[in-house]
Amino acid sequence: MATIAIHGGAGTILRSAMTRELEADYRDGLTAALNAGWEILERGGPSLDAVEAAVISLENFPLFNSGRGSVFTTEGKNEMDAAIMDGSRLRAGAVAFVQNVVNPIKLARLVMEQTEHVLLAGTGANQFAAQQGVEMADDAYFFTQHRYDQLLEARDRGVVQLDHTVDEADLITEADERPKGTVGAVACDNAGRLAAATSTGGMTNKKFGRIGDTPIIGSGTYADDVCAVSCTGHGEYFMLGATAYDVSARMKYQNLTLEQAAAGTIARLTEIGGEGGLIAVDGRGNVTLPFNSDGMYRASVTADGEFIIDIYA
Amino acid sequence: MATIAIHGGAGTILRSAMTRELEADYRDGLTAALNAGWEILERGGPSLDAVEAAVISLENFPLFNSGRGSVFTTEGKNEMDAAIMDGSRLRAGAVAFVQNVVNPIKLARLVMEQTEHVLLAGTGANQFAAQQGVEMADDAYFFTQHRYDQLLEARDRGVVQLDHTVDEADLITEADERPKGTVGAVACDNAGRLAAATSTGGMTNKKFGRIGDTPIIGSGTYADDVCAVSCTGHGEYFMLGATAYDVSARMKYQNLTLEQAAAGTIARLTEIGGEGGLIAVDGRGNVTLPFNSDGMYRASVTADGEFIIDIYA
Fold this sequence. Notes:
The structure is a homodimer.
Chain A: E1 3-11, H1 20-42, H2 47-60, E2 80-86, E3 91-98, H3 104-114, E4 119-121, H4 122-132, H5 139-142, H6 145-157, E5 183-188, E6 194-200, E7 210-211, E8 221-223, E9 227-233, H7 235-240, H8 243-254, H9 258-271, E10 276-282, E11 287-288, E12 295-301, E13 307-312
Parallel strand pairs in A: 3-4
Antiparallel strand pairs in A: 1-5, 1-12, 2-3, 2-6, 5-6, 8-9, 9-10, 10-11, 12-13
């Protein structure tokens, strides 16, 4: 049975720091993305197209840290990472720190479909983008004032910062400085094929060509014939725990349900000091969206086609 | 009980295409590297130091595709990847396509110990190298004629090529064109602490900033409190299978021995079309070195301190 789930990042998302207008905007962004993916599944389309469409919608929505609205590096640039995986064929494509690419997830899909590789990075990945003729935009397209203000503040304070930092300065604690901005989608189509996609602008004030978990197959993104997983949170811990693949491994090797496996994976993430969450689906249309942070922007579709949208824990 | 295993790459390594002199050189290189690591373990040193020392030795030896003697990109450059993981603390550091760094594995260790990150790539990683003051060398240091000839030939034929290509032109088949060059080490020290390290020059004639499995935690390199794993072979398949972490997952979730788990992981690799091998140790000093290719340059130490060095299947 076809289903889809999406996320718009996890972190210190507090109701007390959210205005009614801003919350409505976030809900609109999630609804539009879920709809973009669900439309494809409803008419019998492939899960791969559905997760790509949902992530494109999230990338284009400036409030989320991916595509338009990505955070800034220490040099004031937007450098973006993305990955997509087709579980039914066990194929994947990913890009790391590409610049000026309107939809990094489309470029990740081209890596999967047009090359023998899985991951392309940096200027080389941008050369590939040019060769493929993907849509590019100038820096102004990606600029958002709230992200730029976050960079200025992070530079002042000498920290690397998460994307969903609350606005009140007095609420900004050690925990808030962790990077937790990502968008993602997982889906199962009518044929039971699974797919996952994840996209991010990375960490505010990042430097030295840091790559997080998003474009790493097995860490931030994974799909096979068992489940499809997209993660969001403090990326380094998802890399150390091989978090996305761990859900599949627990299902395959321990015969756990999707929900049990994902809960075990998040428990392990907590144990090793990581913060964030994941969304996952299996081939029977089960969905789970566990996280250990204060909130995670998330949405999914029920068996009856009803949209469920949530932000807080 | 302390033990160590190393590899110098897997691929189409045929006895018929090897001279006696060349085979002796490979054996010398493996012996020196095993010795560099074993010396540290024998005097009670940490596995992390042992795997680093072994990989430094392999990086410095020009016959192996890492450090000095790395293959050339399509632009005639040496771009290197490396990763190291400390299983006892579940920490890791990695670098991707760094240039002119004499020992990429040392830089990977600095990422682990001096930053909050796991993976740094490209010019950013080179900036980090400069900041840390690691040893650099000009292009001439990394140049080897046999690698350059491989590039010229690969360019002529328009293919991306493995490192251990046999010399006879008539032996070069489709299979030979796959990338399989890497070096690596895994060790268990007297305290039962596990560590893994892997380093590579990547694929001959590679372009577009391709990153393979070597610097990907969970794909080419992994260590935790269960096992330490370093892989070599056609990197993309090791990424799709989350191969290095899969050994740990099978041990933890299926209660398999190291040997059973690694055999299962290689069987899965074969099933998905991947070629290559891995070396692995567990906390009791067990060692396994399975591969599905014609050969893998490999060495390990027995319980009696005897060195075992092998090349062919």
